[in-house]
Amino acid sequence: MPLVFPHGIDYFQAKVLCDLHCHEPLYVATRQDIYEKAIKLREVIKFPHPWLFLIDADASPLGDGTLFIAPDPGLGTNEELYKGILAQDFVKPWGILLKERGLIKEDFEWWRVRGFRTHCVGNHTNLNFYQDLKNVLSGYIQVATAQFTSAAFFAASLSMRVRIIEDVCTNSNHRLQYGQHSSPHHREDVNDKIKDVWSRLTSSDLDVSREVALEYLGIDFMGTKEELKSRYHHAINCIKRPLHLYPIHNINIYNIILKLIAVGIPVYKFYPFPIRKVISRLRAFIGFHHVLYIRAAEFHDFGIISDKGYHEEKAYWFFNPFVTSHIYGNRFFPRWSFIGLRSLVSFLKLK
Questions:
Q1: Virtual torsion, Cα 67, 72, 73, 79, nearest 10 deg
Q2: pLDDT at residue 304 above 90?
Q3: How far apart are CA 295 and CA 274, in angstroms?
Q4: Preceding peptide of 274 cis, ω within 30°
Q5: pLDDT at position 332 over 70
Q6: Domain segments of the chain: what residues?
Q7: Distances from the Cα of 215 to the Cαs of 183, 220, 281, in angstroms?
């Protein structure tokens, strides 16, 4: 299907709509305010989130106990989360939903020996991701989280209680406390919207919680199978451009790019932000790499934080035609190149 389904639920947390500039021609808006923002930049269809097709009108959880939604895995994060769980009263049995990002088998064992059932539903490559997630959630009566997560909306839509594991510092470096749902990266008026959404989502009144979850999952755009099929076909027939290539507006340039793609040149990979990506590719081709070494308590996909101990930084510029090493999750994986070996040695020295 030529649709972009944003991979996360939008609750005003992002400055730019999630996955807005993916290349599929139609962007799925699950709410009117999302539609009004996106339609200024690309073609949009009003459509419910696919999760709504999996749940019943009177959906209710089937199991008991508490499922904890874990942040990106790592020893420091696991310990911090576990302390937060023990500090509050959560109904047992306990289970934990682990993210695949950076996950290793030791993470499963870490939680199992502490009495938790362990679950993981994979990532976007799992064609049954939502069904598998629904099966896991339905085995519990409530979920608890220490960070903003779309899984909380999915759980609330099943009439599950959503609770906060208070005052836990996760890899996102946000402390999520009841009544204090906010992000330090937003203006105060945006934070007020985030607080309102999450205060309702974590309400002890399950009707209130489920109502906001269904709203943000696109219940207002729901319809019968025939109505949705008709809406989809109409949107497909109205598509003006087969690929979304932001920020190209000139039709002549757009047609040239389509011809290049047609002969096998993947020019679309430079969009959006083509100038930035061209510079990045040139730097990689020439082989100058800026490697930053940091001694910290945690390594994580979206940044490097140190909420324990201290950190020190060293930057190096040097020539090498091979790929740089990288840090994935909070695990350090050097690639087999000169830079990878040098990074590993320097990393071990800093430790």
A1: -70
A2: no
A3: 33
A4: no
A5: no
A6: 53-219, 273-350
A7: 22, 7, 41
* Confidence (pLDDT) at 57: 62
Residue type, position 3, single letter = L
Q: What string of H, E and C letters represents the secondary structure of the chain?
A: CCEECCCCCCCCCCCCCCCCCCCCCEEEECCHHHHHHHCCCCCEEECCCHHHHCCCCCCCCCCCCEEEECCCCCHHHHHHHHHHHHCCCCCCCEEEECCCCCCCHHHHHHHHCCCCEEECCCCCCCCCHHHHHHHHHCCCCEEEECCCCCHHHHHHHCCCEEEECCCCECCCCCECCCCCCCCCCCCHHHHHHHHHHHHHHCCCCHHHHHHHHHHHCCHHHCCCHHHHHHHHHHHHHCCCCCCCCCCCCCHHHHHHHHHHHHCCCCHHHHCCCHHHHHHHHHHHHHCEEEEEEECCCEEECCEEECCCCCCCEEEEEEECCCCCCEEECCEEECCCCHHHHHHHHHHHHHC
| Sign of the four-CA dihedral 316, 72, 82, 105 | negative
Locus of tokens 């993210």 = 99
Max CA pair span of the chain: 64
Q: Which CATH number does the domain 53-219 belong to among 3.40.50, 1.10.260, 2.60.120, 3.40.390? A: 3.40.50
In the predicted model, is pLDDT for residue 335 greater than 80?
Answer: no
- Range with the lowest mean pLDDT among 81-95, 106-120, 146-160, 262-276? 262-276
